[in-house]
Amino acid sequence: MEGDEGSSSNYSIGQSVQERGLPRVPECYTIPPSHRASLNPDVADVPVVDLAGLQQDPAQRSIVIDNIGNACRRFGFFQITNHGISQAVLDGALSSAFDFFDLPAEEKLKYMSNNVHKPVRFGTSLKDGVDKIQFWRVFLKHYAHPLKDWVGLWPQNPPNYREKMGKYCVEVRKLAMELMGAITESLGLGPKYLTNKMEDGLQVMAVNCYPPCPQPALALGLPPHSDYSCLTIALQSSPGLEIMGNEAGTWRLVPEHQGVLQVHVGDHLEVLSNGLCKSVVHRATLNCERTRISIVSLHSLAMDEKMETAKELVDEQHPKGYKGSSFRDFLDFLSTNDIAQGRSFNKTIKLM
Ligand SMILES: O=C(O)CCC(=O)C(=O)O
Ligand SMILES: [Fe+2]
Questions:
Q1: Which residue minimizes the CA distance to atom 6 of ligand 1?
Q2: Which positions fall inside the Fe2OG dioxygenase domain (predicted)?
Q3: Which of 94, 121, 222 to mutate to test the pocket of ligand 1 (most atoms within 8 A of CB)?
Q4: What is the DSSP annotation of 292-327?
Q5: ipTM above 0.90, yes or no
């Protein structure tokens, strides 16, 4: 997530839960009952948008654009099929991520850092010893666009990580650009409204690994948050993502469909659209059986480029609801605020 909560651990990351011999978790260190996940969650009824029509005649294209626009306004979230990224590329990215997290701890700890400004960093929310396991996740984050500027800093191990993850990053970015065009078109701003700014924009990959958790009902993988991006595209190895329904506090599990990708409206798209699109609040839940990986591609404007509300969407009835902010503003906020404690950058940029 573009927001995380410290990164230190006494665990030797990559060992199985059994090898770590984790004790049971004292109640006082688990998340409060009101924030715990159900082990039998309701399933979300979220749109699955078939992107094939985007390449077809104008009538087909406008149906797909309407579907995307409606999903962004109603849910801030949708899933996509026929997105053009082959199963082999998706599987390659996932397997290189699994291989990375399977490496011996020393190899991963080379990238360990708490500094949120670092372009490549490894971290963990398995906090400070065996007691405090509110959040049960290890992650690797790295910048990805332009690939040639960053790929040389990515892990050299496993040996195919750069190639397999690099291929996925390039393709998923192309897809994000296409989706952003469709979304700005659905807002009446035209398909090229953000193209130039997105060309120079950031792509940050959050590769998350949630090892099996002995008590998944007492912890979470990631706390509730919305992404500080324009648009996020996520690929997961198995279910675990939950989104908040329109009624606050109602969590729904995103159902699994083979080959499908998940699209989240991020805070910056909410700002651009003057609140017409809502960034989706989501969290990652855990299970006790298998490791889950999610590969999250966050797309935003350049580091110092402020996202402002489109003036075309502001009038007397719809006054500007947000102040402009850049990705760097967010990182600065993150380095001094603990998002796991409920601090949200999004709230600080709302004018009303
Ligand atoms: O693991 C997931 O499905 C969610 C990850 C996420 O929300 C993030 O990295 O921002
Ligand atoms: Fe997220």
A1: 1
A2: 200-301
A3: 222
A4: EEEEEEEEES-TTPPB---GGG--SSS---B--B-H
A5: yes
